[in-house]
Design a protein that fits this description.
CATH class: Alpha Beta
Distance between the termini: 38 Å
Cofactor: FMN
CATH topology: NADH Oxidase
Number of strands: 5
Oligomer: single chain
Keywords: Flavoprotein, FMN, Oxidoreductase
Pfam families: Nitroreductase
GO molecular function, one term: oxidoreductase activity
Structural class: alpha+beta
Family: Belongs to the nitroreductase family.
Shape: globular
Strand content: 15-25%
């Protein structure tokens, strides 16, 4: 799939059809995620792959917008590793770029995915820390739920000239 086609056609998928994510495809997605840019090339991310049905089913108990995890074969928790930061505070941007690469790779391989927010919601951060036994220096940013798409949202052009400003902000 062409990179522009991937960016313009990727949508958040919240319904999943039966089918697994192959280990090879998961590795490709994680390789793409790890190619994201990061401040000072610190790459301060850690990825927790969750494919245990009981763990996936427990996620919506503290992360209500991740209810679709109950029907998906896996999720990837993208975390910032504060011990790996070169420039403190940039882990959020770095891990966000990794999530976007992960989403595009999933789409390019024919999967559906959705980024569910974790950080900075204290209940969600604590929920994932407890559920997955995360050490104190690992902060969960987002939980990406992945599987075979059970829906096909329509393409909509989101380009908006009014949101473009040149050489300063204009109201």
């Amino acid at each position: 799939m062409d990179v522009f086609e991937a960016m313009l056609t990727r949508r958040s998928i919240r319904a999943f059809a039966p089918g697994e994510v192959t280990p090879e495809d998961l590795e490709e997605m994680l390789r793409a995620a790890m190619m994201a840019p990061s401040a000072g090339n610190a790459q301060p991310w850690q990825f927790v792959v969750v494919d245990d049905r009981a763990i996936l089913d427990a996620v919506p108990e503290f992360s209500p917008y991740a209810a679709m995890a109950k029907q998906a074969p896996l999720g990837v928790l993208v975390c910032g590793d504060l011990s790996q930061e070169k420039y403190p505070g940039y882990w959020v941007q770095d891990c966000s770029a990794a999530i976007q690469n992960l989403l595009l790779a999933a789409h390019g391989l024919g999967y559906g995915a959705v980024w569910t927010g974790v950080y900075p919601m204290p209940d969600r951060v604590l929920g994932f820390k407890k559920l997955l036994s995360l050490p104190h220096h690992i902060i969960p940013l987002g939980f990406v739920v992945i599987g075979r798409p059970g829906q096909r949202p329509k393409h909509r052009d989101r380009y908006d000239e009014a949101k473009i400003h040149r050489n300063g902000y204009r109201a």
